[in-house]
Amino acid sequence: MIENIDIAKVGLAEIEALEEVSKRTFIETYGEKNTADNMEKYLLENFSTAKLIEQVNNPDSEFYLAVLNTGVIGYIKINIGNAQTETGHDNAIELERIYVVKEKQGKKIGQLLCNKAFQLGQKYKADYLWLGVWEENLKAIRFYKKYGFVEFGKHIFKLGEDDQKDIMMKLKL
Known about the structure:
By secondary structure, the chain is α+β, with helices and mostly antiparallel strands. The protein has one domain (2-172): 3-Layer(aba) Sandwich (Aminopeptidase), CATH 3.40.630. The chain contains five helices and seven strands, in the order βαααβββαβαββ. It has a seven-stranded mixed beta sheet, sandwiched between helices. The longest helix is centred in the first third of the chain and has 16 residues, at 15-30.
């Protein structure tokens, strides 16, 4: 199945598909463990068409969709330079988002997307790739550890009105 997947850079023409997969995968990943109000607030603030257009137009951010046939099944977002959500990561790339739709998880699509992030890290000659992952998302933490990411700190991730703790992980490139 992995050989039939295209990884395509997102432009303005793909905003609708990006918005759909962003909302869907975020709800699938976090909906059961968070309140409807906090989820709705987060989705409105972070996955609106206007917000995604702003992010796609940022030269220091890039989105890539995983497409199987004509359906979008996952995506990544990377940040370099000033687009990173934390300061102090000079010569690094932040993997801000990596998501796969629930029914396609476990089919190596996350691996394909991670490999794309690694390629981008090499393209930009980054020293390391870093990310934040919710401490309660044990499945994702296992996935990152499998690829060699190591914990180096924690930070607060605001989901609606809820302050949640993220584990910060990095991978030397």
